[in-house]
Amino acid sequence: MLPLLISYTYLLISTNIYIVDAATGKSIFILAGQSNMSGRGGVVNLTWDGYVPRESSPNPSILRLSANLSWELAVEPLHCDIDVAKVCGVGPGMAFANSLLRKDPRFGVVGLVPCAIGGTNISEWARGGGLYNQMMRRTKAAVCGGGVIRGLLWYQGESDTLTLKDAEAYKKRLHRFFEDVRVDLRLPLLPIVQVKCPNHIPA
Ligand SMILES: *[C@@H]1O[C@H](CO)[C@@H](O)[C@H](O)[C@H]1NC(C)=O
Ligand SMILES: *[C@@H]1O[C@H](CO)[C@@H](O)[C@H](O)[C@H]1NC(C)=O
Ligand SMILES: *[C@@H]1O[C@H](CO)[C@@H](O)[C@H](O)[C@H]1NC(C)=O
Ligand SMILES: *[C@@H]1O[C@H](CO)[C@@H](O)[C@H](O)[C@H]1NC(C)=O
């Protein structure tokens, strides 16, 4: 409970904070996928350089759910205690949240739920598996303190490009995963933002 209190204290003492949704809770976004979501920006030779671009700066209205399920001020690397087998750097989560609040401060407090694990393939994310269960457990814990799940940000797929068979099965597996998440969260219209890895165009 303590980290939660500290987070709120921080919010309250900071000036110019726009907490429109304070009564109803946070705008919660699940961050899932592989390394591209977890974040490797600024990681060279297994060390993060510590550089945080302006668009990924901390913002008192952006919190993250830590591995031990407490809310805290979100700072890069967002996945440091989640994707623990790898060295984490800057990912897309903070830039997304900052951009969202810039466009519409009525989102209030954004609660990010980091769940991405580097190197994982879509089959490992299937319903019933460890990654799926962990994501569900963290998401349910996130709404426990009040708030609305506003979306899932999904950035994954490179691990499914190693064989043609997996690449061809990807679309079906991904649809299945998205459907399962919507059913299990009882949010049939849950917005899902999927990032597509760029095509490699032969020279
Ligand atoms: C995704 O991550 C892989 C592995 O770290 C990297 O090689 C690739 O450039 C990343 N792709 C994008 C589009 O960021
Ligand atoms: C990373 O490690 C390699 C091999 O040890 C070295 O040649 C290179 O200069 C290092 N790069 C940086 C940015 O430290
Ligand atoms: C939870 O993790 C935070 C850091 O992420 C730490 O400050 C806090 O003491 C931890 N709380 C518990 C109950 O382990
Ligand atoms: C996905 O990753 C797991 C664990 O590394 C591996 O066992 C499996 O063969 C991979 N591919 C598929 C299609 O399951």
UniProtKB/TrEMBL annotation:
One Gene Ontology BP term is: carboxylic acid metabolic process
Q: Which GO terms describe its molecular function?
A: carboxylic ester hydrolase activity
Alphabetical UniProt keywords: Hydrolase, Signal
The record's InterPro entries line, in alphabetical order, gives: Carb_Esterase_6, SASA, SGNH_hydro_sf
**Span of the signal peptide:** 1-22
| Record bears the keyword Signal | yes
- The answer to whether UniProt assigns keyword Transcription to this entry is no
Q: Where in the numbering of this chain does the Sialate O-acetylesterase domain appear?
A: 26-196
At the top level, the lineage of the source is Eukaryota
- Show the PANTHER family listed in the entry: ESTERASE, PUTATIVE (DUF303)-RELATED
The name under which this protein is listed is: Putative SGNH hydrolase-type esterase domain-containing protein
What is the organism field in this record? Helianthus annuus (Common sunflower)
